[in-house]
Design a protein that fits this description.
The longest helix is centred in the N-terminal third of the chain and has 33 residues, at 81-113. The protein has two domains: 28-386, no CATH class; 401-655, 3-Layer(aba) Sandwich (Rossmann fold). The chain has 28 helices and eleven strands. It has helices at 28-46, 57-75, 81-113, 119-130, 134-142, 145-148, 158-182, 186-207, 209-212, 220-234, 243-260, 273-285, 296-303, 305-323, 329-356, 358-362, 364-386, 401-405, 445-448, 451-461, 485-505, 529-545, 564-570, 582-585, 590-597, 609-612, 636-641, 643-656; strands at residues 417-418, 428-431, 438-443, 464-470, 509-513, 551-554, 580-581, 603-606, 617-618, 621-622, 625-626. The radius of gyration is 29 Å and the shape is elongated. Residues 29-346 form the Acyltransferase domain. This is Acyltransferase. The chain crosses the membrane at residues 54-74, 95-114, 188-205, 211-233, 245-261, 267-286, 306-323, 329-347, 368-385.
Length: 662
């Protein structure tokens, strides 16, 4: 997404009739590479099943940017503050106007068509995008299981621009410092930073893949790979006749990544070497002979690649809602046409006029003033969005959708969770202090949403509630197929250790609840998964009941079709639009099945499905209360409303330990 340069522009021929010679023309191979990169990104966002690895187009952009910027900087090293200012001013004119226009337009479109429940997240990310720290905002969300499940915002794609802008701030300073000391060290310094970043990327992808995807230290090596190619080209390295085969090899590597990678690929890490090395080989080959990548449409897409990238994602997110239709070939066609049209208008009326305006070019102050105005407008639009009224605020519900979204059990703000790779073992305590009647709650997030109800019961009866909770990790002594093998091992170890701790504490009652269907068991045929999971849960129950500990199993609650507060905000006039058929909402629950099959006399099963569902339909608004704060986790308020049912079931379970009739 940087300006175009010829690596070795030919000497200008004499100008006929006294006209000035033209400057170096655009490298057609780089424009074609840009066209490929943006095309696969757009295709991935529209048709992820057909182009499962299209996200690597962003990595190709990184290599191109590192190459072009480094080539410019080594040809004209910034040796003063004025030189650095001139470099940054060119970046501002090239990137900021279009980015700000899209941010403001997207914020306005979000206010018009998206649910108010998303406004806070959108505003936060618009601000992060305007300040070019969006990648860090998303990295923070990626480590939060619930935040990671929020609907993607229409400015989420600014994370890659943030990394590039951070590179544009950092890299000229490094080059200036190295050139001032000893220019010959530049390749070595570049290679060392590249190697350190790549090593960190590989490590972080293994231990924290969500953060690794976004944080700058794990991504900067991709731009520095382009920088290494630029340094080689600047020193005169060329491939000659080998350029054609090398370019084809590079193209093949990118195609392998585009169609061979998918969402389950551990990325970036070492996998990102495939598309980035492919892009680096194409840049090094510098093949510009005739062929498909010299065709005019390809060159136009390459020239417009930056605004195409900016516009496509907001349209992907907002267009179906604006059109009142689910995603289809018709909505996809609309997104494509609108993306190209808006990109062309942006180039014609925003990019070129401001990038090349003589007065703006001649005055760095004017350029940085433009930056300040763009930032203020973008952040101001984000602030205005947060001040917008809440949808459905007058719908007669006990709480608004925004209030429901934030109505989470105390275990979330209290940080009572173990998250992948499950190396921590937090335990939180609620109810009476130091009671001799202790209740242990164990399971994943669908156990966590019972904490408000259980805490209410504990307070009423003088019990102490201890929570043993792990995001996504359900309570079985078999391997669960997490994408990260370390999480698979960690989950199994976490369950073993916390069951040991619970047994050792001799609680008066253990409460277990889990959502099982979203995470498959490792190395188990899907047709056998239900039976294997039920046997694994039976072993877990036996570990407790064999020591005389009574257990209350709470059957998993119905699952909504999507984010419930969002749906309620969009359908305030017809809340039945958010309901779901009972057959689809009630997912299989092998834990409840194991509880019902247990013959120890110490297992009680509580099923509250009828509070949500009749014979045919499950509701997401029950007795004027929004039942969920997302797609399937109970709001704290609705969980507390179920305390009477939980109290009766808990009493039956405790009595079972003394042999009383159940």
């Amino acid at each position: 997404m940087s300006e175009n340069l010829r690596t070795a522009p030919p000497a200008a021929a004499p100008s006929p009739r006294g006209r000035k010679p033209k400057g170096p023309s655009v490298r057609t191979d780089i424009q074609a590479l840009r066209a490929l990169a943006v095309s696969v990104v757009v295709a991935f966002h529209l048709w992820p099943e057909r182009v499962p690895g299209g996200y690597v187009g962003v990595d190709v952009f990184f290599v191109i940017s590192g190459f072009l910027i480094t080539l410019h900087l080594v040809q004209k090293p910034p040796t003063s503050l004025a030189g650095l200012g001139s470099f940054w001013a060119r970046r501002v004119r090239r990137l900021i106007p279009a980015a700000a226009i899209v941010l403001v337009a997207t914020t306005a479109a979000s206010w018009l068509w998206l649910p108010s429940t998303q406004f806070a997240d959108i505003a936060r990310q618009v601000t992060g995008s305007a300040l070019y720290v969006q990648n860090w905002v998303l990295a923070d969300s990626a480590t939060d299981y619930l935040a990671a499940e929020n609907a993607p915002t229409p400015v989420q794609h600014y994370w890659s621009l943030s990394i590039e802008e951070q590179f544009y701030l950092f890299w000229p300073l490094v080059i200036a410092a190295v050139v001032a000391l000893r220019r010959a060290w530049l390749p070595v310094v570049t290679a060392l930073i590249f190697a350190a970043s790549l090593a960190w990327s590989i490590h972080l992808t293994d231990v924290d893949p969500g953060a690794a995807y976004f944080v700058t230290p794990a991504r900067i090596w991709e731009l520095l790979l382009g920088a290494l190619v630029a340094l080689a080209v600047h020193r005169g390295l060329g491939l000659g006749r080998a350029g054609g085969p090398v370019a084809l090899l590079g193209l093949a590597l990118m195609v392998v990544a585009v169609f061979g990678f998918d969402r389950d690929t551990a990325f970036p890490g070492s996998a990102a070497l495939v598309p980035t090395l492919g892009a680096a080989l194409v840049l090094l080959a510098a093949v510009e002979r005739g062929g498909p990548w010299g065709w005019r449409p390809v060159q136009v897409v390459g020239d417009w690649s930056y605004p195409i990238y900016l516009w496509h994602w907001p349209l992907v997110v907002i267009a179906p809602l604006a059109l009142g239709a689910d995603q289809s070939w018709a909505t996809d066609a609309f997104v494509l046409v609108a993306t190209v049209a808006l990109a062309g208008l942006t180039v014609r009326f925003v990019e070129k006029p401001l990038r090349f305006h003589p007065r703006v070019v001649a005055r760095k102050r004017a350029t940085f003033a433009m930056l300040a105005v763009a930032t203020v407008l973008s952040c101001g639009s984000a602030w205005a969005l947060t001040a917008a009224p809440d949808d459905a605020s007058s719908s007669g519900l006990a709480m608004t959708p925004v209030e429901a979204r934030d109505d989470k059990p105390a275990v979330y703000p209290d940080d009572c969770w173990a998250s992948a790779p499950f190396t921590t073992h937090p335990v939180c305590h609620y109810g009476a202090e130091d009671s001799d009647r202790r209740v242990a709650l164990i399971g994943n997030s669908h156990a966590g949403h019972w904490q408000p109800a259980l805490a209410t019961v504990a307070e009423d009866r003088g019990w102490t509630l201890d929570t043993y909770l792990a995001s996504q990790c359900y309570t079985v002594d078999v391997d669960i197929a997490f994408p990260d093998p370390a999480a698979t091992r960690g989950c199994r170890d976490w369950n073993a250790e916390n069951l040991r701790r619970i047994v050792a504490s001799r609680p008066s009652l253990v409460v277990i609840s889990n959502r099982t269907v979203t995470m498959p068991l490792a190395d188990v045929d899907p047709e056998d998964a239900q039976d294997v999971a039920q046997r694994a849960y039976a072993d877990t129950l036996d570990r407790l009941t064999s020591r005389g500990i009574p257990v209350l199993v709470i059957r998993d609650t119905p699952a909504a079709a999507g984010n419930v507060p969002d749906c309620v905000a969009l359908n305030a006039d017809d809340l039945t639009a958010c309901d779901r058929p009972r057959s689809a909402a009630l997912e299989s629950d092998p834990l409840a099945a194991a509880g019902r099959a247990d013959d120890s006399g110490l297992v009680t099963v509580l099923d509250v499905s009828d509070r949500f569902c009749d014979d045919e339909t499950c509701r997401v608004v029950v007795d004027d209360q929004i039942a969920y704060f997302d797609h399937g986790h109970l709001t704290a308020t609705f969980s507390r409303s179920l305390a009477p049912e939980v109290a009766r079931a808990a009493a039956r379970a405790v009595r079972s330990a003394s042999g009383a009739p159940r």
